Structure formats: C-alpha cells, structure tokens
Amino acid sequence: MKRILITGASSGIGMYLANGYLAAGWHVIACGRSLSKLEGAISSAHPELTLCTFDINSQSDVLEALKPFTSLDSVILNAGTCEYMDDPLLFDSSLFKRVIETNVIGTGYCLEGLIGNINQGGQLAIVSSSVTLLPLTRSEAYGASKAALDYLTRTLAIDLSPKGIAVSLIRPGFVDTALTQKNTFSMPGIITGEQACKYIMQGLEKRKLEINFPKVFFFIMNLLSLLPNALWRRLAIKMIRAPE
Which domain holds residue 19? Predict the structure, then answer.
C-alpha cells in the first residue's frame, strides 16, 4: 500500500486530497495544527488514516512530529495562509512576517523533516498559487510568499531528480474553501474542492512538473502575463478598489 503525507489537511484543498487518497486506497498521513479539526474534516475511523499535529511555525515541533514517518511514496506540502495588505501606506510588517513564515519558512521546516524519508521513485508536491503569474493589488505578502514557493519547487525539481524523486509545482486558481469564502472580491473561474482534488491527483499520477488549474482561468492569466509590464500595471491600477 502506498503512503502519502499531506500538510494542511484539516480544511480546504488538503482536506479534499486526504479524503480523495483514502478513497483511492492509499495510507494517508494527514497533518494539521488542530487534532479536533482534523478529526472533523476526515473520517478519523478509517483504518488507513494516521493523524499528525504540529505548529508549522515551530521548527522543533515540525521535526519532532514528522520523525516517525519514513518510507513515504508521496508528500504534498499544502499548508499555508492568506492575508491581504489593505493599505500600502501603512505597510503591515507583522502581517508580512506571518504570511512569509507560514507559507515559506514553514514549508522549509517540513522539507527538512521529510525529503530524506521519500522513497526512491517517490514524489514531492508543493502547493503555490496562480497569483504568481501577475502582480495583483493587495497581494504584497501572499504573492511574494507564493512566488518564493515557485522558485523553491522548480529548484528542487532539478536537484532531486538525480535522487529519483519527482517534484511537482501545483498552482490552483480560485477554489471554494473556507479561506476563499472570506474574500470580498470577485473570483472568476472558481471551482469546488472536489474538482481541485481531481486535477491534482490526476496531475500527480502523470508526474507532471506543473499542475495548473482550472485550465481556462489559467490560460487567461498566463495570456495577461505576456502583456508588457507597463500595460498590465495600468490595467491593474484600474482594478484597485477599497476593501469592503
């Protein structure tokens, strides 16, 4: 039986992936900050489910919690947060630090604890975002953190290839989760968590270097990213509006 470890499994994409891989017959190690939330999100009575809790912002906590999980066939690093910068003139460095530490440094802690435990021929996937295609209003912290994950993942794809580990970069568009339900702006092309799970599982099965979805939304974003920066900047400025 194949073993997969998924972080951020107590809600959103991670929750759907944990349930999806259980249904597909994998042994799933579902990780999150809260045991009660994990138990509420996933069928905790499932015989092939192991729950693991840690604070992703604590290196010692992460490394200690992940120590028992050796011989992994797949790892999906999905845990993250999203906060927006409402007023650039009042740059919130505490918010910036929170987002960077959780999304980037926390991912680094997980990599330290897990890369050496992935089997030869195994897979590593890191969840970024389609926000990295274009600079978007209020995304100073979130966009920067996800851009860092893009570079990190692509570099690991090079350096881990000789070790026999395939690495995939996952860049979703808008997915209907508790996190996106807090957004007060239009979310074009939004898809369900079940649809996101299907895209990811199919992409990983094919060992794709990049898993970008939904296809139409990503195509439009990619097309816009080809515009001259000055032109996109003018368009983006017109999109700015006060937060509701």
Answer: 3-239
